[in-house]
Amino acid sequence: MQKIIPAILTADSADLQKKLELFRGRSKWMHIDIMDGIFVPGRTISLSEVGEASEFFNLEIHLMVEDPFKYFEDCSGIGAKRVIFHAEAVKDIPLFLETTKGFAFQKGVALSPNLVKLSFSKLSLTKFGLSGVLLMGVHPGSQGQEFLPLVLQKITAVKESAPKLLVGVDGGIKKENIKSVFKAGADYAVVGSVIMRAKDPLSVFKSLEEMVQSIEAV
User: Fold this and answer.
1) Which of 10, 78, 133, 207 is 20 to 30 A off residue 172, Cα-Cα?
2) Containing structural domain, residue 82
């Protein structure tokens, strides 16, 4: 079932808790961005500030960090359901997955827009424990950027090359392009600024969900 996952990118612990409380009971999933100020320029809250959110959400933790492995223990500690690491942050994806196979959460790899020449057939790594791919619709690091249309082709390419992998898209998604993203084959879309910066975030979230449901009904 195709779905929308709201996203939180913040350096303010109080802001994080406010947004988590707002979506409590209204979204089964929550995507939280973790940035170290090295892999990308900005810094966000730490994993320890996420608190007990896993009691109310399936947490997808997006590690925009230089050394993702050192965050995995904390991801496990907060009860993450899925952890996303960036392909550029590890030297060997199969080896990295082998090293981290002791962690029970799902593991996904994020692909930035500049990785357009990557052979998607190489991502058929379910035997190593890879459960999904998160295609970045913008360059990672900040919210509010415009969606890059070339990502639509990447969605289809991943689905054709590795049909068993869960495909998510993150960045630049809004009502004007969300149907194109799902029609290209995405399983879920991560939506941050369009929801969180709205006057009524819950209303925007609900309207996007309804747009996705209308696609499935056709």
Assistant:
1) 78
2) 3-217
